[in-house]
Design a protein that fits this description.
Length: 564
Amino acid sequence: VVWHCLRHALHRLGVGRRLASSGLQVLFRQINQDIHCEYDKLNAQAAAVVCQRLLQMHLTGDAPRSYWRACFLGLSAINLAENAGNYVSTQLKSQMYVTTAMQLQQELPNSLCFLSRYFLMRARDTYSEAGSVAHPAMQWLFHPLGHEFIVNCKLPCREGQAMWASVTNKANPIENISQKFKESLLEDIFAGLAFPCSGHLSSNKDQPLSWHGPESELHLLHECCRSAPLKSKSSLAKVWVLSKGEDSPSSMGGCSVDVLMSSIADGCDHGRDEVAEWWAALGLVALHWLRGEEEAAKSFYSTVDHLPKSLLLSENPIPKALFQAFNARRIILHAESLTRERLKESGKLCDKASIYLMQSIELASLHHSLNAENSCGMEKDTRLVQGEGTRQGSLHSANRMQELAQLLCCDWLLATRTDIWEISLDVVSRRNCLGLIGFQHDLESLRTIAHAQKAALPRVYLYEAVARLMTDANPARTLQLLQRAGTRQAFNQSACGALRNDCVTGERERAIALLMACRHLPTPYLSAPGQRKGMLLEAASCLEKMCDKRTLKRCKQILLSLKE
């Protein structure tokens, strides 16, 4: 390992390749020096590919794990690739640097993280030195978020759950880490959509909430998933032709080299990730709906409409719940004149989504109980606890993502059922309104989720008040719940599951609570002069902070009706 570090330093100084091609070998060269030079490069290229593949096997657990042996393989692959020159493609050389950085990062202390940063920098510089642009499937590695994730990642380079992102080549550790990066992005995205986060909000209540964080991460995730496969085989055509040439010695084994080139090409392919792409499109739809930008959301409907087969057949039904909730919400948001039949159709879709949501919550509760029992059993063996620490952290992250996805589904279902109730008030009575039983079931699901996600409590108060409005319950208690829903609260990171700053909740709930009170509470409870107008103006101010154009438009319409 020390020798290969020194050899790499010599390559960086520009003398490594010359020493490799001269030295004692010059005493034995007679004729056809150019041909031998080409064969030397070809041998170096083939050896680099073998070392790279062996390193990948070490990282993915397909070979016995040895840290220093894997470091030796990574440095050997890089040095041999430097000797091979143009016979190793820019793409493959960059992957070698990234794979070595990932290997060094696995067990290096934090004080030596600069080594992995160095190899990541070399991977990026490989493209700039060649005058080419990194393939879209590799660009996330050079994004600030991706760079920090790789440097700080201590997770094993093995395939994870296919629930949130898929892997086309399980033997490629870069793809496996890419899967974990997408999962990390999704966790931040769901947390940002569910609980607006901003560090300065706790001290300044008048600052608008920005969706820039989730939006930038959503677009990054969407681009990562839509990248086309890398074609490494074409970049090695020159090597393939040489190995098939007439002057090729039998020891070169042209057929074997061809197989080797095909295998490394397959190992470099990054297929399109339909699973993560579907989640990214769903997140973009949720973001645009939160802003009241229904027209902008339409461009992602076609992706969401095609639920990947792996999610359709998944053990966890939360993707199907979100899919049905999405269809139900879309009917309400895009129907210019809602008929009773369309309302019933939306309600039936809500009922289907509600069943899937309850099944998902029950399944999550069962898994949580089993994991708790396993954790109690492992506490008796300290060695096992230490060995399972990373896996338990991964499970905790997956559970948090599932809870946030369930919360998004609850939001859509309860908002859709509330809209159906308000639209149908002119057709049916309050007590016999459409979907009241389903509303109660979804509210119970929201209560269950709020036990783990404390920042969702204002929504529980809000929809409890809406349920009371639907049943004409005591307005005094309803008013108290609406007031509690509108209380601005701050939660720390552990309470909301975000990896950012503190979560600030209550802005949207406060605006909706004010609107519901103005529209549905009896006159005696809002009898003070100008009280309704003041409440609507306050709601409009909250909605402007949230950038919710749709609800803000509805609020202004109510204000105009008051003036008339």
